[in-house]
Design goal:
Helix content is 35%, strand content 20%. By secondary structure, the protein is α+β, with helices and mostly antiparallel strands. The strands form three sheets. Strands 7, 8, 9, 10, 11, 12, 13, 16, 17 and 18 form a ten-stranded mixed beta sheet that branches. Strands 1, 2, 3, 4, 5 and 6 form a six-stranded mixed beta sheet that branches. A hairpin with a 6-residue loop joins strand 5 and strand 6. Helix 6 packs across helix 7 and helix 8 crosses helix 10.
């Protein structure tokens, strides 16, 4: 199959640079939050130097907080070792046009330690999000398997620019819609100038688009891109978010991928669809009867492991304090660790049949880092297969009312504690990775614990 429109080989890029079509190349990776960081290189310099040798970025980028302040306590990077450099190695399978930016190409990078002496082999930075997913993919490949995946991202669109929203302290913003518009074409047409531009830019940047639609919240939307192998999908996910934010910025509007934008609004999710393949065949398909589903034993065990390990890896699905406010009954977000057939209240929803059979995990929020969320899903499911973990019975009925079903972790503090104590996480991701992210999520929780919120002032200022 030919590459999608917008994907480039190094030869393609060279020709476009020589013809003047490209004059800037972005080298990027994501931090722990999932934000894209990196450098813009002059295109000629990229060809002369960085294409072969890569470039450098400060190690602190995997240890900063949301405000880009260095956080003490990390082994990976700290003041004691002087915050040196990573080596950014371009992965040319991700090289593409960045259609929304003039004369710009973009390539995602893997991170290696910049070791001395120079002839010493470089070491992959195991704590980098893309490396964490690649380790799980490599384990899968050793078994001759391929994971196919898609993530469905939801977000809110506001008429305010990002600068205006910040000046308003993100309060009193004007949503793009003024009534619930789930599937409404009329309300969707009112924002088609933005969503049409986003779809076209994604397509021209090597990301195949399926559809966009209004969602259940005021100004909430969903834009879906085509499924692919799991690493490519994670790459598409982070570029998708960057594109949508930058297109919004250019139009002086704003989009938010917060998991819960307001107490009275639906949360924004990142549902994960996943299946395992070998030799062109979906290994989840089969003739075993599980409830009213025909599937393979492998499918059942994969779901069993995925559900079983949710509490231990919940921080990779729900990484912020805000994430956990999404899990409310009647909100379209899952509150219970249940599996069901085509039930949107279930944490795990079985969809498709035959070669399209897959599981949709509805637990991750739009604020997740896709590399970490996909890595957690793969590690959990493959452990289920290895240990033949049986899933719970397929549930029928109102899951929100099923008080006997186990709940998703209630808050970040509980999820962090379970993550740090888990033998499974240390075995799956390595002790250094778990220690790094344990500190990262504890820092996030601590920042919230120290904050005094508007809710507290409104509740206690006068009446306490």
């Amino acid at each position: 199959m030919p590459n999608p429109i917008g994907m480039l080989t190094l030869a393609d890029l060279t020709q476009k640079i020589q013809s003047g079509e490209i004059d800037t190349v972005i080298l990027a990776f994501t931090d722990a939050y999932g934000r894209m960081v990196g450098k813009r290189l002059d295109a000629d310099f990229f060809l002369e130097e960085a294409a072969e040798h890569g470039t450098h970025a400060c190690t602190y980028l995997l240890t900063v907080d949301m405000e880009m302040e260095p956080v003490p306590g990390y082994h990976l990077a700290n003041w004691q070792n002087g915050y040196g450099d990573f080596h950014m190695v371009p992965d040319f399978s991700t090289l593409r046009i960045a259609s929304w930016l003039p004369k710009t190409a973009l390539v995602l990078c893997d991170l290696e330690e910049d070791t001395k002496p120079k002839d010493h082999p470089l070491r992959i930075v195991a704590e980098s999000p893309r490396a964490i997913l690649k380790r799980q993919v490599e384990r899968l490949t050793q078994s001759g398997l391929t994971a196919m995946a898609a993530s469905e991202l939801e977000y809110y669109l506001f008429k305010n620019s990002y600068r205006d929203a910040a000046a308003k302290a993100y309060g009193g913003l004007t949503p793009a819609g003024w009534y619930l518009e789930d599937y409404h074409l009329l309300q969707g047409s009112r924002n088609e100038n933005y969503h049409g531009a986003a779809r076209r830019h994604l397509r021209l940047s090597g990301i195949l688009v399926e559809s966009s639609k209004g969602e259940w919240g005021l100004g909430q939307h969903e834009l879906n891109v085509r499924y692919s192998d799991i690493l490519t999908m994670a790459d598409r996910h982070v570029i998708f978010k960057q594109c949508l934010k930058e297109v919004a910025d250019q139009m002086e509007v704003s989009v938010s991928f917060m998991a819960k934008i307001g107490a009275d609004q639906a949360g924004s999710s990142s549902h994960i669809h996943l299946s395992l393949w070998k030799d062109g065949q979906n290994l989840f398909s089969g003739n075993e009867q599980w409830g009213n589903v025909l599937c393979s034993n492998l499918f059942r065990w994969f779901i069993g492991g995925w559900i079983h390990h949710v509490p231990e890896v919940m921080v990779f699905y729900a990484p912020t304090v805000n994430s956990y406010k999404r899990y409310r009954a009647g909100s379209w977000a899952p509150t219970r660790l249940a599996v069901s057939v085509d039930n949107r209240a279930a944490g795990f929803r079985i969809v498709g049949k035959g070669q399209s059979l897959r599981v949709e995990c509805r637990i991750p929020g739009a604020d997740c880092n896709p590399y970490l969320a996909f890595a957690a899903a793969l590690a959990s499911g493959m452990d289920g297969i290895a240990n033949k973990i049986e899933p719970p019975a397929i549930f029928n009925g109102d899951i929100y009312a099923a008080q006997d079903l186990p709940s998703v972790p209630a808050n970040l503090r509980d999820a962090v504690s379970i993550f740090g104590k888990s033998a499974f996480t240390k075995e799956s991701f390595g002790e250094a990775v778990v220690a790094h992210y344990l500190h990262f999520y504890e820092t996030e929780q601590d920042a919230y614990d120290k904050a005094v919120t508007d809710w507290e002032r409104q509740r206690y200022f006068e009446r306490i």
